[in-house]
Every structure is written in structure tokens, then in C-alpha cells.
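Thread: quick sanity check before group meeting

JM: Hey all, I'm pulling together slides for Thursday and realized we never actually wrote out the predicted structure for the chain we discussed last week. Dropping the sequence here so it's in one place. If anyone has concerns about the input, flag it before I start.
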Amino acid sequence: MKVLLIGANGQLGSDLFKVFQAAGDAVVPVTHAQLDVCSEDRLAEIMAHAKPDVVVSTAAFHKVEECEEKPAQAFQVNGTGAMILALACQRSGAVLANFSTDYVFDGSKSGPYEETDLPSPLNVYGVSKLVGEYLVAAYAERRFVIRTCGLYGIAGSRGRGGNFVETMLKKAMAGEAIRVVDDQVLTPTYTADLAVATRRLILTGNYGLYHISSEGQCSWYEFARYIFESAGLEAKLSPVKSSEFASPVKRPANSVLSKAKLRALGVPIPPWKDALSRYLKERSRRNAIAPPVSVS
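JM (edit): ok, ran it. Output follows.
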């Protein structure tokens, strides 16, 4: 199949590109610099040239603190941008796969969230992504809306904004005291695994709303502790409550997503501990083959 991949050089986009390319798909990669999803004319131009069977978009305004400060921009990108993509795909007959977030929920549920659970976002980012979900559902018949959470990937470790794993490793190696919340539960998700599951889901042709994240759950503190354990690092790590961190953004206490609907289609995704081990191995491999930096 021919895939137009929007956000192809991002943390998730980089892994999606590898997965589609390795499977023999014809991939047309597009970066944010090449396309603003809010530009109907530019999107129409790219769609006419690429003629994709599937459009996969990772485009988002996802810095949650900035979303609180710039709500109009958040709704423009996450809401209007998603609608523009949906309309373009509907006109061309292409399938749309668009990513959303666990932040559409308020985190008050005691167990994992199902796709049928009523959303109740706590912050501007969550509301804007939920608006995007509704607009994609309204305007694109052949669509996948994929909620995920706790993403980390190799591209994020190579200078594109970082990720939680890299932040923890950096702090530990610097000997810093590290305080991590233990009252927010999630499922850390390796973008390489998310990319594989996304392609498999698209191939089922069962359109709709899906949750895709690694299996299992942990608190952010437990995740940090396992990062250090897996990396063989001693760290000055201590658990704290989220109330001890001053933040303008309310975050859900429970971000665990049920994958029962995904499993029913025969699409597996590995446990988060297994995923982290593979990420650390790939990270080490890449660091070992990185070219030396010349010093003049």
C-alpha cells in the first residue's frame, strides 16, 4: 500500500516510517516543516501528488503546558487540523489513521479505560484532542482513531526533545536527586511497538476508535525505578505525590488503556517491561555505532 506519513521525523513518525518501509509499503514521508496540517491548500497539493491509499498523521500540538497558555493554537492544530485531514481523506478515498491520547479521560476510573468509556478531559490538550477525535469521526468514514499514552522512542533520544527514559538516565548519570510521582498510573509505550501494532490494525480494515499502548501498568515512580534497574544504574530516586509539583496542568491519575478491542482483532502488543529492555538494547547499539565527534 502507499502511505502518506505526516510527522515522519518525529519520535513516533520515525518508527512508523521504518515499519512501513520494512514491510515493503511505498512511504511518502512529510515533516512539519513541509506541511502545516491546518493548510488545506498545501495538504491538497501533497495529497494530489502522493495519491496515498492511507494517510497516517502524528501531527499534534502536544506540549501540555503550552496548550494551557495557547488554547487557540491547540484547538487549531489538534481540532481543525484533524478535520482538514479527515475531509481530504474522505474526498480522495484514502484511509486516515490519526493519533489521540489518554488525556481525554479524567483518570478517576479504578481500572483500565475502554473505548466506550465517557471522556472527561482535565486540560486544554485533552479537550483539543477529543475535539479532533469527534471531527475525524464526523468527516472520515474510513478512519482509525488511536489513543495511546506514555510514549518513548529512539528518535526522542537523539536530540528531538528527549523522552522520560532519557531524562531519567541523564539525571542518574549526573548524580542528581530524582523525585518522581507515585500516584499517577500509566502504561509506558515504546513507539517501535506502537508502530508495528498500528500497521497491523490498519490492515484489518476494521475502522473505528482503538486503544494501543503496551500491556501492563505502573506508576511513573515504578517506571523510573525499572529504568535504573534495567540500565544497571544507581540512582537517588524517591517517590513523591503529584500535589508536591506545582503545575498549571491537571493530569489524570489513571491513564491505563484497555487493549481488549485490539486483542479481539488478533493484534498483539508486548508488555512494557519487555519493551523497555528492547529500547535500552537498541539505544546501546546505536550509541556504539555512532560516528565519533571530531574536535578541532
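AS: nice. The first helix runs from residue 11 to 22. Residues 114 and 209 are 10 Å apart (CA to CA).
JM: adding both to the slides.
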